[in-house]
Design a protein that fits this description.
Number of domains: 1
Order of helices and strands: HEEEEHE
Distance between the termini: 32 Å
Helix content: 10-25%
Shape: globular
Largest sheet: 3 strands, antiparallel
Radius of gyration: 12 Å
Length: about 90
């Protein structure tokens, strides 16, 4: 059972393979800048006070949701700039 009241089923829905080209809008609640390497794609996501939200590839979402500092905020198209360059574009 999850501690967040069903986030496991939301996570399963968010990471289905049919989501190619889409991502999950992730919000950062921390105070310090942080760089996260996506566990599914190896992409680098840089969060800070001025860049609190990013469109995160669905394959990387599980790692973010394990931390209290990140929350899923919805489904979004992935920015073209993040599709192959290894660095997530700011949203």
């Amino acid at each position: 059972m999850s501690c967040c009241g069903g986030s496991e089923s939301r996570l399963a829905a968010m990471t289905r393979p049919s989501w190619e080209g889409r991502g999950v809008l992730i919000r950062y609640a921390g105070a310090r800048p942080v760089t996260v390497i996506g566990s599914g794609t190896g992409r680098r996501y840089v969060f800070s006070a001025s860049a609190r939200e990013h469109a995160v590839d669905a394959r990387d979402v599980a790692g973010f949701l394990r931390s209290r500092c990140f929350r899923a905020a919805g489904v979004v198209p992935l920015p073209a700039a993040s599709a192959g360059d290894g660095v997530a574009a700011r949203t």
